[in-house]
Amino acid sequence: MSTATATESQVNEIVQKYQTLDLKNPPKSNSTIQVELKNPNGVKEGFGDDYSKYLPQSTKDRFQRHGIDISKGYPERPQSIPLFLDDAYKIRNQADPNYIERGVNADPEKKALFSKAKLVRNLTKYVGTELVGVQLSDLNDQELDELALLISERIVVFFRNQDLSPQDQLKIGEFFGSVEKHPLAAQVSGQPGVTTIWGKFNRKDKETDFKKRGGNLWHTDLDHEFRGPSLTHLHLDAIPKEASGDTAWTSGYGAFDKLSPEFQKFLEGKIAIHRSAHKYFDRDDVLAGGKHIEREHPLVVTHPVTGWKALFVNRGHTLRIKDLEPEESQTILNYLFNVLEKNLDIQVRFNWAIPEQDRSLGASAIWDNRVSNHYAIADYDDETDERHGTRVTSLGAPPVYKEGSKSQREALGWDK
Ligand SMILES: [Fe+2]
């Protein structure tokens, strides 16, 4: 556990601010003491709270079928959680020399992948495709490569009725890029990189409140990372009984194409600042409390596989546009968020439960984080509509904007 030096009055100040602090030594008058800092997010290490007894039956069955041991507790947290901002910044702060961009050389017609499907069903015109009759665990490298291409074109691809082990989910993620191992997130026991997505655990039995539960935000995962997620794979192994707990995605390609050519030109080459969801202490200013990681990315990005331009901002994490006055930045960002959020023709909403979903099996969504925002719709009840999932996130190359790249509509000739 890390320590920091502080005077008695500073300690009192910290204690008032962070009730979770443990004092290793009682303060002595006018002396300097060591305090033990707990992370500002209050996350416990290791197995922390054991929620294994609350696991939905279908999740327990999945874990048992595939040899996941939850006897020591569930879920598991990383053993050592970074406390300080400079340590958190250093995590994955450089390009991955072994990264291979999947999908670049894939068959544009995706014949191998599509021949395995009973049906290739587009859920909307521009966003979202379901592959019916395909088991993700059966796909070989060529088919996964074609899947990477399909996801980059369609934003998100769905698979129902899957018997997918957490281990196979991890393997698929590793094919797409190095798998993100979150420094704080709860994960499947013994499977670092397979993150637990579970409202009951995350909300810790807080009472559900209809008025507040819509308070989720459109966002992109981990966009504060230097080389953020390329593809994210969420597999729900417990699907709410009622038609609830949907997830929605919106297309960054489509949002960019909604803008006028003059405004597009203004935005191209601009830099936006993105912030982490979690906080860490500033080593030189512990009393300031937890601070977020902030990272710069191009506001318009060029997708490395399709070559299409996309808006890369989201209401959840994008703070400001570099070099603009604060009010200019906020006004423009708000407008861009609205374009992403309010145009239903560039969105898809996926109902995990219907149609044709066997609840003893799971369903998967794999999406491209580089060109989308998503929104988890929290209209389910943790007690009666159990919802549990595992998420594997593959990290890509740092986002870039390429001068001269085309938008989706331009490249596909949709406006001719
Ligand atoms: Fe998310």
TrEMBL record:
Gene3D superfamilies: Clavaminate synthase-like. Residues 403-416 have a biased composition (Basic and acidic residues). Keywords: Dioxygenase, Iron, Metal-binding, Oxidoreductase. It holds the Pfam family TauD. Residues 120-393 form the TauD/TfdA-like domain. GO terms for cellular component: cytoplasm. GO terms for molecular function: 2-oxoglutarate-dependent dioxygenase activity; metal ion binding. Its EC number is 1.14.11.-. It is an enzyme of class 1 (oxidoreductase). Residues 386-416 are annotated as: Disordered. Its cofactor is Fe(2+). InterPro entries: AtsK-like (IPR051323), TauD-like_sf (IPR042098), TauD/TfdA-like (IPR003819). PANTHER family: ALPHA-KETOGLUTARATE-DEPENDENT SULFONATE DIOXYGENASE, ALPHA-KETOGLUTARATE-DEPENDENT TAURINE DIOXYGENASE (AFU_ORTHOLOGUE AFUA_3G01010). Belongs to the TfdA dioxygenase family. This is Alpha-ketoglutarate-dependent sulfonate dioxygenase. It comes from Wickerhamomyces ciferrii (strain ATCC 14091 / BCRC 22168 / CBS 111 / JCM 3599 / NBRC 0793 / NRRL Y-1031 F-60-10) (Yeast).
